[in-house]
Amino acid sequence: MENLDVLVLRTLRDWRVAGQRALLATVVRTWGSSPRPVGSIMALAEDGSVVGSVSGGCIEDDLIYRHTQAYAGKDGPHRIPSGPPTLVKYGITADEAHRFGLPCGGTLELLLEYDPDPQPLEQLVALLETGRLTRRTVRLADGAVTLEPADTPSELVVDDQRMVNTFGPEYRMLLIGAGQLTEYLATMALFSGFAVTVCDPREEYRGAFHVPGAKLVNDMPDDVVTAFKPDRRSCVVALTHDPKLDDLALLEALDTEAFYVGAIGSRRNNEARRERMIEHFGQTEASLARLRGPIGIYIGSKTPPEIAVSVMAEILAVKNGVTLPRDMDVGAAKDQLAVRANDPGELVCATRPG
User: Fold this and answer.
1) CB 160 within 8 A of CB 189
2) Are residues 38 and 158 in the same domain?
3) Which of 27, 74, 123, 291 could form a disulfide with 40 if both were Cys (CB 3.0 to 4.6 A apart)?
4) How would residue 343 be classed by pLDDT, with cut points 50, 70 and 90?
5) Distance CA 182, CA 324 (A)
6) What backbone torsions phi and psi does residue 281 show, to the nearest 5 degrees?
7) Are residues 155 and 212 in the same domain?
8) Which DSSP symbol is given to 36?
9) Can you tell me the mean pLDDT for 136-140?
10) Inter-axis angle of helices 267-281 and 330-341, nearest 10
11) Distance between alpha carbon 229 and the CA centroid of its chain, in Å?
């Protein structure tokens, strides 16, 4: 699955280029609990087609009812108005919050842009498709749009005169190794909006790998990392257990801005990897501080799909800036289990892990 923002903007562009009336809705403020974060977007065409989301569905239904031909013949205008953007709030009262499916006390405010100019949309989509982080500014007086490059992602800003929203290229994931675990992790990453590349020079593994939507390459992993050019919206995960494939790729990844670099393996194997890198590749504890391992959060996972859930959860937490509790760290959790297993006073039966 591609990045949702790009999908929304591309679809809206196609509607407008074809001459179809449409609106773009953006979540600009929230109060209390909200089903979608600030910056979320959806597009609505005059025939009732919708892509993207600003709520759990009820607000989308209301917008369809008010602004499209899907309810033609019933009371109300049922058409997309013309003119400058407008701000609209949902969930101001408890009754409205219940009606629109918002959490208790939740309120959100949308900016509705009517018939966005297709030319800036074409430019924005083209920039995003080439991996450019782009700042989009909408003048509230008349809906005029300006685009400019951005160096870093930033939060949406709205005031009485303008709305500024930064759109980035899709998140990317590079997986080293094409085994069974990779198939599950690649699948989860794709439906989480990542573009996935899988690297494995071993023909016997590539031949069995099949995940629609994932790109499969056969060059040596360190060369692939270099060509991949990981940035702040990229993660690199080594899954082969083979130092000849994993180690050099990880070292290349650590020299980039990738937001997540990690490797599968037990605590013992990960400790051995660090010792190799320090002894043979001139690394230090400081230079390896960003290397994650054992990767994942502790959920007692044992099977490949469960391990993939664990790893994907940690990647998403890091991506979203969430600090996980210490007891969810795989290494810390297994250390604690080992202590309990070797303590006669603990009524815990556990096998000392990896």
Assistant:
1) no
2) yes
3) 27
4) low
5) 23
6) -125, 15
7) no
8) S
9) 98
10) 120
11) 18
